[in-house]
Amino acid sequence: MGSARDRPSKLVLSLYHYLLVCFILLLIILIAGTIYGIFIGSPFQKNRDVEVVQKNSEGQTFTGIGQIRVSTADNPPGMVILLVSFIYYPDDKAFSEELALRVGDFRSILEDFLSSCSSSDLQKMGDEGIKAELLRRFNSILKLGQIDTLYFSDFLIIG
Question: What is the span of the domain harbouring residue 40?
């Protein structure tokens, strides 16, 4: 027959039962939380959606055009490095889509305008004159909205 040593003690059995009950409770909590999250939704997600709506209604910066490097009309040519951005409202889906579709056109406008000017012409026009001309050209191709103000993050004339 088995000795007392082979039989588990009452302490080990009670510990085993305690751990089994804890495991079952954790499993129930995990399943209940999953069901709640699937059918009811997370309160954290709702707060994040409100934050995104508030951010979108304030406007965001459109930087999709990227940095432009263009040779000037000088002989020998100089170089213009320019990063243009502007504010747009993502809530206006149609205008946002038009902007995304016009990125190539915006780049062409920038390259055509900057390459037709000499370094001294650009310096005489200054930031504001260049912004006004580019804004006029950008808005002339837009059908679903207009850009209010252009911003230059990088603007360097070399040569």
Answer: 10-55
